[in-house]
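Design job #97: recover the sequence.
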């Protein structure tokens, strides 16, 4: 229900304003890694503190967006994005972690015109 209301609102908004609007696609890669803090205590006293890093993992990121110009100075952009993250283990175990994100950000844009102060 919420999805159909959102899509209806998006369609009505684009017709009501009759401004420039467009759909787009964005794609890229995401390089992620993992930092691991180690803290070992022996006989109640800290013996070793360290930081280890797991191997980087390259995952795709892609999405679609709809950009609607509301006026000369403002616009709104609605995105649906997939981001893959994770890391590979540095050891011989061959283990890995995959983290998949699906996000729906809504961004409000304001275009400042600084030529007014140039004179």
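Job complete. Output follows.
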């Amino acid at each position: 229900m919420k999805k159909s209301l959102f899509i209806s609102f998006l369609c009505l908004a684009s017709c009501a304003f009759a401004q420039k609007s467009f759909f787009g696609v964005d794609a890229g890669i995401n390089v992620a890694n993992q930092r691991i803090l180690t803290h070992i205590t022996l006989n109640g006293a800290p013996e070793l503190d360290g930081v280890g890093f797991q191997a980087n993992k390259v995952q795709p990121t892609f999405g679609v967006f709809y950009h609607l110009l509301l006026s000369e100075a403002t616009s709104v952009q609605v995105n649906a994005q997939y981001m893959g993250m994770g890391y590979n283990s540095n050891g011989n175990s061959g283990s890995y972690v995959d983290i998949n994100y699906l996000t729906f950000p809504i961004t409000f844009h304001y275009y400042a015109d600084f030529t007014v102060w140039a004179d």
